[in-house]
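Continuing from the previous page of notes. For each protein in this section, the sequence appears first, followed by its structure tokens. Read the first protein now.
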Amino acid sequence: MAPGVSQVAQPAIEIIHLAKAFGSKVVLRDFNLGIFPGENLVVMGRSGIGKTILIKCIIGLVKPDSGTLRVFGQDISKLNHHELDDMRMRIGFVFQSSALYDSMTVRQNLEFPLRRHRRKKISHSIDELVLEALTNVGLESAIDLMPSELSGGMRKRIGIARSLILNPEIILYDEPTTGLDPITSEEIVHLMLELQKKYKTTSVIITHDTVLAHEAANRIVFLSDGIAYATGTYDEMKSSNDPEIKQFFTR
């Protein structure tokens, strides 16, 4: 565990013996992990190994076959529809594709979660919150553009802005730098770190990007064969003599 993140506190996310299969394909078979408040946890592993399924389980988009998954101390399998919706208001999800609605302007895309979660009390007007979110990612001028008018990096930034608009305590990032050139990727990484520091969020970052892992991770978990195969700092993982991990970090 890197300095600045304490394991004394109750985990923000606690995963115990989690299992998930799709037919004969076992994705998670005995996954155990605690993720602590304020931590930047990076999840790495080969493509198709189950990283995205893991974070979809955390937010309740995929139901595990067995095991326990607690978020904010609550077992999500025992939450009713309204309780799950309340929990999701405390979690931001940045999709790999940014998942913007192509028929909506940037303004409308950011308004959508505010209107969808009407039960959340907000201290400012929707217009103020949208402008603040765009200011956070440096894209105030894009407020009335359509997604088709945005570059790949701009779409990523808007996706991050939308995830922040409900002031979440946890942010889940699914491959936030995939498809971006190295300069834009570095800008996104720095933005993620700035926003994590500003909002004091707990972050779970799915990535193949070792540069992102090096810059952002307090701790890395390497997912393999359905389990948390190895955990450690970036330096510990990079210096590992395990052939699978070593190959991944020396590509």
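Done with the first. The second protein uses the same format. Note its length before scrolling.
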Amino acid sequence: MTPSLDVTYVGHATVLLQVDGAKILTDPVLRNQVMHLRRSTANIQADWYRDVDAVLVSHMHYDHLDLPSLAMLGEKTRLIVPRGMAAMLKRQGFINIEELAVDDSTTAGKLTIHATPASHDRARFRGGPSADTLGFVIEGSQTAYFPGDTDIFPEMSSLPANIDVALMPVWGWGPTLGQGHLDPYRAAVALQMISPRLAIPIHWGTLSPLGFKWFSPRFLVDPPHTFARHAQTLAPDVTVKILNPGEAVSVSHTNGK
């Protein structure tokens, strides 16, 4: 049987990766409302986060580090986080925390997880606690790259050459983007540097401020399609697969590209 990498796009930056018997969840946001942001798509299914082997947290922002969502997973859930984040999590009662700095590695089952740079704001809020910002390469029989929130950074060209699936952030939660993000065009430029077999756009179509879904809906729909068009021009050797929040795909070495 050909090993597969099963990818479920839960929504925003939350993705369930299943490979080599391990379940890895990224930046869990498992609620229908986070601060002023409402989930614009179908409700979360418990199967998307039940019995995960490890959670990867990329940075401190509320739409990526949602403490009530982590509490839903349980205080003993293994959290792999950037350097500087553990103290806050310990104060919240979590007991299985591992901090990584850029270029550090750890394991989860048969997988090796490498911490990569990310170009993004470090603070939870202005003047508040801060920690490093990371992406992660998850390496097993297939390899996935989760950039977290980031703009383009030079080390993208030095990521492993065998990435099967890149989970590419292409937008955010509002009609405009701040610094430290990839928009559809810059995400396609990043594909030239990373050169994965398959790219799945994430960080779109899920969260929006109350009312924006009705008054300005296109930012919830357009970004992955704009990204796919740019990718076709800038990185034609990379296959793009658009998953709506809640959808899944199984990727094998024979069907990626």
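What the second structure shows: The longest strand covers residues 4-11. The chain has one domain: 4-249. We return to this in next week's lecture.
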